[in-house]
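Sequence only, no structure available. Ideas?
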Amino acid sequence: MPYIGKTPLTGAYQLCDTITTSATATYNLTVGSSPVIPGAAQNCIVSLNGVVQAPVSAYTVSGSTIVFSSTLSATDVIDFILILGNVFDIGKPTDGSVTNASVASNAAIALSKLATTGTMTFASTIGVGGATPAASGAGITFPASASASTNANTLDDYEEGTWTPSIGGTATYTSRYGRYVKIGKMVSVQFAIVVNTLGTGSVELMEGLPFTSENIGALYAQQTGCVSYFGSLAVNTIFIAFYIQNNNTNMYFVGKATSGATCDNGIDIFGNGTEIYGSATYMASA
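Reply:
I predicted one. Tokens follow.
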């Protein structure tokens, strides 16, 4: 219904249990047989013999009791006592009175309302960029697709996972293994590949990197990796390494079959039974 003046904003409305009158002015206030303590006489609506009583002048409250200004009799009837709780004048709760239980579980609190100085502690995970926080552990959850920041000092992505090295074509494998960690644009990868039969697979390229590399320009600025073990190469070599091609997910192998001042590009190392383990760190395009 409409109100004249200010609308009451908040109240813990409680209807007291029925009270049987007698030759006394003091009565206990209970709800569900449990004592209740009104904030003040003004927080109560009291009807006696069909007439609403004026707080303070007609009655006062003390703890969980109501004290009428005059002694009642057994013929008097307390129609009802309604305790309003705290009706706020300006809608501002008392400092320190709002608990977690008082805040809706889906409340969207603006970041601007949170403290911007000091420290903050989170007991579990937080999500950024619209990501759903992980259900276990404690940390920061990033979205599945990076939301790149133009600020050089902003960490905008983190991811761990696996990838599958391949030489393409009809090659078959005895085993393949790949893992990666991506922090921002920097990707660290490890791999192991054991070729069974080469078929039409590449003899110098390995593909399948988890993220497209950044285009950093000239050939001499290519991003490189290292080979920690090799076996059963298709050619004899005294040195083997690889670089990651620009704007690509391929590794291009280089090496040297004999001593010399310059390694050979495109050394044909893959064949039946070739086994290579290695690692690399490169900058992704995003």
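Residues 114-144 form one domain.
Hope that gets you unstuck.
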